[in-house]
Design goal:
Shape: elongated
Number of strands: 5
Oligomer: single chain
Radius of gyration: 19 Å
Strand content: 25-35%
Helix content: 25-40%
Distance between the termini: 73 Å
Largest sheet: 5 strands, antiparallel
Number of domains: 1
């Protein structure tokens, strides 16, 4: 094998690993978003999350991992769409955000 073939195989292997790992982490993000919507008594819309950003970051142990930010939508009334987000550091959920429900809230600006 030539060096070109070896380097090509390493690059293809790395891309396959990135795709496989991203698919697994996406499934974790979908399940956690679905569960959080159920606990918060809101409807998880479209049954999916979409990748918004991906970049390198350090986890709490100082290891270099990929930080993936996903967005999703939910409805608190059944007639609207609200944005939600989930941040994954490696395979762990770092942040999951659903806006608080403001049902019947009286908001006054001064």
């Amino acid at each position: 094998m030539s060096w070109f073939e070896i380097i090509s195989l390493v690059i293809l292997g790395g891309l396959f690993w990135l795709w496989f790992e991203s698919s697994r982490i996406h499934e974790i993000a979908v399940e956690r978003a679905r569960r959080e919507c159920h606990v918060s008594e809101v409807q998880f819309l479209d049954d999916t999350v979409a990748l918004a950003t991906i970049k390198p970051a350090r986890d709490e142990d100082g290891r270099l991992v990929l930080k993936r930010t996903y967005t999703f939508e939910y409805s608190d009334t059944g007639n609207n769409r609200q944005p939600g987000s989930i941040i994954m550091l490696g395979q762990k959920v770092h942040f999951l955000g659903i806006s608080p429900r403001l049902v019947g809230a009286d908001i006054t600006l001064h």
